[in-house]
Amino acid sequence: MAxxxxxxxxxxxxxxxxxxxxxxxxLLLHMNWMWIGFMADNNENAERFVQEMRLAFxxxxxxxxxxxxxxxxxxxxxxxxxxxWIDETYNKVINSTANAIIFYGEAGSMIILRSxxxxxxxxxxxQKPKCKVWILTAQIDFTLSEYQRSLDIQFIHxxxxxxxxxxxxxxxxxxxxxxxxxxxxxxxFIKGFWAHAFNCMFPNTVLGEEGGDICxxxxxxxxxxxxxxxxRMTGYSYNIYNAVYAVAHALHAMYxxxxxxxxxxSGEIRNLPYLQPWQLHxxxxxxxxxxxxxxxxxxxxNGELKAGFDIINWVIxxxxxxxxxxxxxxxxxxxxxxALTINEEAIVWHKGCNQVQPLSVCNDKCxxxxxxxxxxxEPFCCYDCIKCxxxxxxxxxxxxxxxxxxxxxxxxxxxxxxxxxxxxFLSYQENLGFSLAFGALSFSFITVLVLVTFVKHHNxxxxxxxxxxxTYTLLVSLLFCFLCALLFIxxxxxxxxxxxxxxxxxxxxxxxxxxxxxxxxxxLAFMATTPGSRMRKWVGKRLATSIVLSCSLTQAGICTVxxxxxxxxxxxxxxxxxxxxxxxxxxxxxxxxxxxxxxxGFLAIVSFNVAFLARKLPDSFNEAKFITxxxxxxxxxxxxxxxxxxxxxxKYMVAVEIFSILASSAGLLGCIFIPKLYIIVLRPELNIKExxxxxxxxx
Length: 699
Prior knowledge:
This protein is α/β, with parallel strands linked by helices.
């Protein structure tokens, strides 16, 4: 149509129909009315409107709860069909969860709407009014005819309608009020309007024609009821006004062009040939002016007026007077989503809504923490809400899918927010870390006291009897065992990670190899007392030193291979704990780590077996039975350590290893040195050479 209008110089003085489609969709989206009813006339225009709106609704995520095409009012004998249709449609509307209904039609369609709402009003007498919003298109003319004048128009209270845009013009209302049928002789239409509007007749009316009172000309326009005649300028009148001025401006431009086109030929001024009427088109399509309301009037390239629609809220008062409140507008947009302007606070809703904006959705929105799950056989606007899977969230309403939080975050209990994970490592500031550090330092202090006591009494028989050098080596190693536990506390760093397991493995190997050396020394010493025994050449300090060095260097070799091939390093574990980011030392090679533990276990088992065999040897200060018991404690601790260590993560895994180090070291310290301290400190009379000789004599 636009192309034909351009060809035949026909200019459209109403907004583009497509703009109304856009406005309806944006109004529904703005109000969040995604589940609507639809009623349309039974003609070609309505069919085209329905097709366009279906496409627009589908693209915007709006669903139709129901769609009704009302019957043709012009058909004879259709009264019963109309009543049946009204009854069916009313039940459809009233029982539907769709509270927004679009009504498309022309002036005569108001009878259908009135009948529908009349049934509704009768029902509301005995039950609570339903909150329904009717949205009417600009095609419906609310200017009621004489037949409609007697009807109650309360039914359109709270209705939203689209109307062709209009603005108030200066002095228009005064101009209308001044019009009378006797003063405006050049107006051939006013007498007919006057007689129709005031239900009167003029004195020269044809005899025999029925009518009302005689028209005096004193009747006042402002006395006419609003439903019949509005004093304000309607959209149609406003565009007629603009059309007249557009032609006037085009004629003026055409006249100016003719005046400027005079030319001098041979010293004489000659006029160009007269412009033809069809040439007015060239000036009309370029016209652009501001009318008396201050609005710019111009046409687009297709000869259509650049105009929009107003959104009207109808407010009806008990005395049948009404106000058309302009609550918004649809203007030709720069961008499609910028067309709508609306003032929601100015809207007066239907009495059933209690002045609360109605909802029009198939079902309640899915709250954050849930996602939509479409129902089979239902429109896409109808869905179930399902809880997000474990570990996922949805932070907005009506989300199609839940999503996972970033790696450094975790979902809250309601699964609608992501919280920042807490960085976790065993620190001195927390009770667990402080307690373990305090325990390590306390045992270190006790070990130092024991070492000082032994050094102070280094010449006593009980100290000399069991190889003083090995005793001092054992005590110093135990001291470092307690202190190495401190390497496991605090934020993991590169050097700390390198030293943790390797220092622990080497120091513990020295401790166990020292015990093994002590036990082997006792066994060989007893065997050497047999006359002619070859074991005498093995007895001596060199043997003990060789055992300690060989066993310790083997462990040191394993640790060296570990550090060279796959050294431990600081790592971040974001997956093991839901709410924490664990800072840890990654062992890099679990195989070598368990080799270190396995080698210590091997030494402990060998030491236990040798000590068990030597526990009953006749020696006054034989340590074998104490070493046997200490190895039982040591093995019990580390056998329990493995499953516990594997079943924990984060700082608690570190705490398990620290506890195992402290417990096993304290077991060795207590089992081996408490009996000796008892004699040295509390029973010094037993710590003399004569006592040692007497014991041997008794044996």
